[in-house]
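Q: I have three molecules that I believe assemble together. Could you output structure tokens for the complex as a whole instead of separate predictions?
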Amino acid sequence: MATRSRPISSEFLFLKALALFVFWVLLSGSFDWVHLGLGLICSFGVAWVNSGHSPFVPKFRLWLSIFLYLPWLFYKIFESGIHLSKLILHPSLPIEPRLISVETKLRHQAAVVLFGNSITLTPGTITVEVEQNRLIIHAMDKDLGDDIESKQMESKIADIFKNEEPDI
Amino acid sequence: MDILSIIFMLAGLFFLIVAAIGVIRLPDVFSRSHAVSLTDSLGALLMLIGIALHEGLGKNTLKILVVLTLLYILNPGIAHATIRAAFRSGLKPWKKESQ
Amino acid sequence: MKTFLFCVLVMLVILIGAYLYRVLRGPTIFDRVLGLNGISTKAIILLIVIGVYFERVDMFIDISTGYALLNLVGALAVAKYLEQKGLP
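A: Yes, here they are, computed for all three components at once.
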């Protein structure tokens, strides 16, 4: 058996097992004792096996502001999706692909993850490489590239994380 | 309710068709990945919203939301992993010849 | 509604054919991996629409959830392998 590199944090073990158990109940949909007991055993077993991998503990007070950020993200996805559809359906294919290097001011790992995920979700821009807080982004067009460099999305994400301790 | 769900599914189908045209038409890996991410983010979203409207409130709609959340969390990760592998193994993005 | 769903199913299968062309033709191996990703997303939507068509959504959604999770593991493994190995 492999030795563990990190100690198990009991809070993390409990939260992960709870999330897995909710997923089990959602998938099985039956509430008798056999199924619930099997689900409890399986979810605690899986959480114990890979609890050494990450010391991450979710910060629940951030979830509300992340949830309020989502409608703006969906608006952005629609806007650039329609722009990209116009580019693809245009007979002469007027695309100008380019690589942009962006240095962000975000000081949290979770913020950089959220930023890169939002960029990749927006059609027309994709995150190619991440290194601390430097991102290399492939954009399809000049408009889409300018959209990233205008820092609108970055300032919204910095607003979410303004009360946290920096960890990069 | 059926009319609304048919409208949503037709809009989703439109984006899926655009993405398929893009996958055939665009010149290199990097730009094709944009077309695939258009499928994931807009096509699947509108399509599954249409199906959820057809189902109405209940357990099935909750499960459709779970599938949608999974798609939205996992697909950017997959696209980023593939593109990073292409970038690190030395592929250069396509440029217009006139430049 | 039933006829419309059948038309959607046929349309999705034709779109999968377009991705299959990219998988078979693709100049580099990354094009093929990308095409497979697109096919798997289409397959998830296709499974849910089949579920609505046969009025057994509760069963088919579980299958599509499992498909999405397995697809994640497979795609990440292939991407990691290609990243270490480089362009063949």
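A: One point stands out. Helices of chain B lie at 2-25, 29-55, 59-88.
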